[in-house]
Design brief:
This protein is an alpha/beta fold. The protein contains eleven helices and eight strands. The chain starts with 7 loop residues before the first strand and ends with a helix.
């Protein structure tokens, strides 16, 4: 149902990104460069309420560009903000519960380096993410995936898969896009000195 849309660059929007003065311009560049996947990752739930008009406007703008917007963890906000789905970590609610409640929404799951974990929830998820590919400035405590683990998750083909963690202009390698359906990037997008060139390079790879 969603597999044909779960591909390409996946922009992860954190609180600091959303509140930064350059946020609107960065999103404009992303949409102009045909990024279709976005995730709202707010750990401070108050931002949903304090910046509700801005967030709703953002989601509407992305939808107007035929994009998808998922929310990280906060399942109670899906209907209010018209999110297209939810991304879950290991300490969040069960993907079984999320898919039961929202059968027609996307459910993504962080599986770190474990393809067996992805297989465990295969009937309830629409995509999986693996990582961290590199040391991440967004999640400083995330463990870098080993080469052996990376080769193992590359073999996982049963659902669309994303790679995440520390991917930017300096770390990007073409084999990443060759082996994963989605490339999830946060700081690499929002701190890029020449974002159009960076996105153009990724889109061509």
């Amino acid at each position: 149902m969603f597999s044909n849309k779960l591909k390409g660059l996946y922009c992860i929007i954190g609180e600091a990104n959303f509140l930064h003065d350059s946020f609107d311009q960065t999103i404009k560049v992303c949409l102009e460069n045909k990024i279709k996947l976005f995730q709202i990752r707010f750990k401070n739930e108050s931002i949903f309420f304090e910046h509700k008009p801005k967030l709703k406007s953002l989601i509407e703008k992305i939808h107007n560009h035929s994009g998808l917007v998922l929310v990280n963890d906060h399942i109670t906000h899906i209907e209010e903000f018209n999110f297209d789905g939810i991304h879950l970590g290991q300490s969040d609610i069960s993907p079984i519960f999320a898919k039961h409640v929202y059968k027609d929404k996307i459910v993504g799951l962080s599986c770190y380096s474990s393809s067996s974990l992805a297989n465990q929830y295969l009937d309830y998820i629409d995509y999986v993410s693996f990582g961290a590919m590199y040391k991440s400035s967004t999640k400083k405590n995330a463990r870098k995936i080993s080469e052996a683990e990376l080769q193992n998750v590359i073999k996982f083909k049963r659902k669309p898969k994303a790679i995440i963690g520390g991917i930017n202009l300096n770390t990007y390698e073409s084999n990443i896009s060759n082996n994963f359906d989605m490339i999830a990037i946060s700081d690499g997008i929002f701190s890029a000195e020449d974002l159009p060139s960076f996105l153009n390079m990724l889109n061509k790879s």
